[in-house]
Amino acid sequence: MARTSTNYRCTECGWTTGRWVGRCGQCQAWGSLSEGEPTSTRAVASQRPAQPAIRITEVEANTARGVRTGIGELDRVLGDGLVPGAVVLLGGEPGVGKSTLLLEVAARWASAGRRTLYVTAEESAAQVRLRADRTGALHDELFLAAESDLGVVLGHIEEHSPSLLVLDSVQTVQAQGTDGVAGGVAQVREVTNALVRTAKRRNMAVLIIGHVTKDGALAGPRTLEHLVDVVLSFEGERHGGFRMVRATKNRYGPADEVGCFEMTETGIREVPDPSGLFTSSRGPTAGTCVTVSLEGRRPLVAEVQALVVPTSLQQPRRMTHGLENARVTLTLAVLQRRAGHKLHTRDVYASTVGGVRLSDPAADLALAIAVASALRDEEPVGKLLAIGEVSLSGEVRRVPALGRRLAEAARLGFERAIVPEGSGKEVAAAGLRVIEVASIDEALKAAFGTPSGKVVGLEKRRREHGAEGASAAPH
Questions:
Q1: Is 92 annotated as a binding residue?
Q2: Residue 96 assigned ligand-binding role
Q3: What pLDDT score was predicted for residue 133?
Q4: Is residue 57 left, alpha or beta, with left meaning phi > 0 and alpha meaning psi from -120 to 50?
């Protein structure tokens, strides 16, 4: 006999439990659990498979190879373009440019002679046409439909047989016969399930736009991210022009890659070399230091700025922009305790240039030098950059891919670099005057012209050549 049980489901994230609790165990929302339909537990009988299992060596792999979208930065994040049958979810804050980006992808896809269907459930067809006129995203193979009913959307797919479907957005499409309103847990799950089944059956690539919550997470149940093949995050400040596409899940490529874009009046433009956007053109000044952050596998040269001013408040201010507040607080504590810089009576403001967000620990050393420079009102010597993680003991710790970071700095014309001690072969061919330091105190001395660390790179080779020449010279 089948045994029935009652489940309670969270209306915010879809988490289920066998008994009622006041707080969701996954999203931590209070009072969000509601009683679902009773479920029965019974044995499932085995069935004869429609197709027998075959050897993995006999599977045709060409059908799973990516197709280029025509936007190099997006192809970089996806791995090698869009795989036929893949379902890609793109999330981002309102106004960041999600619809503009995917409309450009649809136009590029259609310009290659591939039929494309763009379904909008948030705007009218005329509104999308106006955006397409402004960005130049017009093509005869690009079909447009303004529908919010899942059945009608599937009917459009059957009628036009597109190779690419763009849906804007999954939270505004409703499946008839499913409980809940559009955007609810049950509706989002059913719509996504139907699109995934259709994509796999028709070998059609699908791009879905998803809303985000106030915390920046994708709205809807957590299972939404598990259902799709690729999850992309579109980041950037609404009032700034720079945008980044970051992969958080990718079944067909790397999940740590980023693509860079710039929002302009005529649409979105890819930025294959974004390092120059995050440094000021004035050169080194007091309170600034440059570092090289690693976004995915791409090195980005960014500038950290600091301002230190006296305060009469009992609790001094610590304000940051583009930097993690916790890492800034830790770095200031290390500067005061390990380097003797008195910051407990001063307000400290730290920021990045160009709106870039630095979460890489390799930016700790540049932040420390920028704060010390602002406190001393003295600029670092030469065209300097600093790369390294600062520990609570004041030690400068090594960071990954240092050789790649230094190569990017050398390409942009930097002359001196302060790096952690023991970097070894990674700095041998950097083409820079590299100074290895073991502590924050040594790093500050090297930054302001009194180096006590180990000098390697070009300077070491110059000293060796100079010593050889002196020994060969006649007395």
A1: yes
A2: yes
A3: 94
A4: alpha
Q: Following DSSP, what letter does each residue of 260-329 receive, concatenated?
A: EEEEETTEEEE-S--GGGGS-TT---TTEEEEEEEETTEEEEEEEEEEEEE--SSS--EEEESB-HHHHH
SS3 161: coil
- Residue 108 confidence (pLDDT): 95
Q: Is 236 annotated as a binding residue?
A: no
Token couple for 408: 């990017």
CATH topology of domain 276-462: Ribosomal Protein S5; domain 2 (3.30.230)
Q: Do the annotations mark residue 158 as ligand-binding?
A: no
pLDDT of residue 467: 44
In CATH, what is the architecture of 65-272? 3-Layer(aba) Sandwich (3.40)
Paired tokens of 17: 């439990």
* Three-state SS at 433: strand
Q: Is 354 labeled as ligand-binding?
A: no
| 3-state DSSP helix/strand/coil % of the chain, to nearest 5 | 30, 30, 40
Q: Count CA atoms closer than 13 A to 455's CA, side-chain side.
A: 17
**Residue 98 assigned ligand-binding role:** yes
Q: Is 307 helix (H, G, I), strand (E, B) or coil?
A: strand
* 97 annotated binding-site participant: yes
The pairing of beta strand 416-420 with beta strand 396-397: unpaired
According to the model, what pLDDT value does residue 452 have? Answer: 55
93 is in an annotated binding site: yes
Strands 142-146 and 242-250: unpaired
Query: Cβ distance 444 to 375 under 8 Å?
Result: no
Structure confidence at residue 458 (pLDDT): 47
Cis amide prior to 393 (ω within 30 degrees) = no
**pLDDT (0 to 100) of residue 245:** 93
> According to the model, what pLDDT value does residue 337 have?
94
Distance CA 101, CA 114 (A): 18
Residue pair 319/410 in contact by the 8 Å Cβ criterion: no
Amino acid at 207: L
The one-letter amino acid at 321: H
Where the chain has pLDDT below 70, the residues are 1-5, 37-42, 281-283, 425-430, 450-475
